[in-house]
Amino acid sequence: MTDLPIHVIHENPEWLPPFARAFEARGETFVDLDLSDGSIDLMAAPPEGLFYNRMSASAHTRGHRFAPEFTAALIAWLEAHGRPVINGGGAIALEVNKAAQLAQLERAGVPVPRTVAALGDAKVAEAAALWGSGPVIVKPNRGGKGLGIQLFEDAREVVERARAGTLQGSIDGITLLQDYIATTDGSVTRAEFIGGRLFYAVRIDTGGTFELCPSDVCAPEDAAETGGPVFTVVEDAVEPGLQAAIERFLADGGIDIAGVEFARDAEGRPFVYDVNTNTNYNPDAEAAAGVSAPQALVDYLIRERNRRLAAPKVAGGRG
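Now predict its structure.
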């Protein structure tokens, strides 16, 4: 139909094969835009096409410390020239900042756990000293894949660790202290949104870990045997009010594609604690349910590319 390409922005080629197969199934190709390094001629016009941003907050764990910042610069350049970007500037800003995620979630009416963001060990200790009784989660503000998240049964231990300088930090220096939502069955829910709308939800049997990346390259083959997470696509897991609030948050933030994780407390109340705009999908769970989020995502990209190609150019627009 068109020669207008779809560019996929990323820094981790290991996460691309499911999407490459989905493109191939539709007789489409894509431009592989690996931003683990690169350069931008800001005086030139960007290439034509639709751009899909899959940059990850965990890029630093693969040696690509500044790839998200470089992606933000690239997206600003693209958007300044009127190029359409799926998961654009708003998405990359929230992908690398959990504190900002939580603030925007609460603004949209999404229930979130009580959270304090602290810069520096002294302020972490101060916040923990005022936390009160009960368990507390300590996590990096910029993380990814659940890395660096710790559960402490008593906030006093956090005070001691912070004062001793032995808490694991965040790559951006900001530490989050967060209420631990104790679920009745040890599971959490990840709701997958495509085009800003709920596609499906998956129940994650956590097995006591916070590292819940669903991609098959994240977990060993014997994850179930070793107590790792088990993913199951489930129906009616997101009540209409929560779904509407999350979709409002996504629209406000300019986020098209996301995995939104939440836990339910003993009374069944949901609390959203993380949004992943570089979402991946579990192939075994999808096969069992007969669904394919990678295919649905690629179909969405193709529709958006074709829709925007058909839209009339705005007079005086750049590029």
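The chain has three domains: 6-95, 115-179, 182-299.
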